[in-house]
Specification:
about 170 residues, alpha+beta
């Protein structure tokens, strides 16, 4: 009985140590994949930095900067669109910046435009829009003839365009 009383704390201590060892092994097994991923990221640090730089350059080409507020961005895009269509000899009926549609990483700013003119002017304006940076996207558009259709003459067209620009969020 005395021997059992002396061995009981040692047995309990052994079981306690075995339990703690098993728990530590489970934690190590759970941490190993995370640690391996982190080592992989550290090893590819230069590549990740290069990809980040490239992504930032692409974002700068496609989207307006986050430093500009949405109203300023919409106004700037509106002036660009107005200038391009006016330089293409089209009569601008109306141009309107619509409310911003907020997203998790980017704001989408819609702009509606109504113009009148000939097909060559519309073609020229759309060609010039394709060269803009940041990009001015064209969501949809409609064309209608104005007046009677005369095959021998340049037909006057009315067009409605729904554009959008994207602004990065911080």
């Amino acid at each position: 009985l005395t021997l059992a009383l002396l061995l009981a704390p040692l047995v309990w201590l052994g079981l306690y140590a075995a339990d703690k060892h098993e728990l530590a092994q489970k934690r190590i097994e759970q941490a190993e994949p995370r640690y391996a991923r982190l080592l992989g990221l550290v090893a590819r640090r230069e590549d990740i930095g290069q990809f980040t730089t490239e992504a930032n350059q692409i974002t700068a080409r496609l989207a307006f900067p986050a430093a500009q507020d949405a109203a300023q961005t919409g106004s700037e895009a509106q002036q660009r669109i107005r200038s391009i269509f006016a330089d293409s000899k089209l009569d601008i009926g109306s141009i309107q910046v619509l409310p911003v549609k907020e997203g998790p990483h980017f704001d989408r700013i819609p702009i509606n435009l109504r113009v009148e003119g000939d097909l060559a002017g519309i073609h020229n304006a759309l060609t010039l829009l394709a060269t803009q940076s940041p990009v001015i996207g064209l969501e949809n558009w409609t064309l209608q003839t104005i007046g009677a259709v005369r095959p021998a003459s340049n037909q006057r067209l009315g067009a409605q365009f729904n554009f959008f620009v994207v602004r990065a969020r911080s």
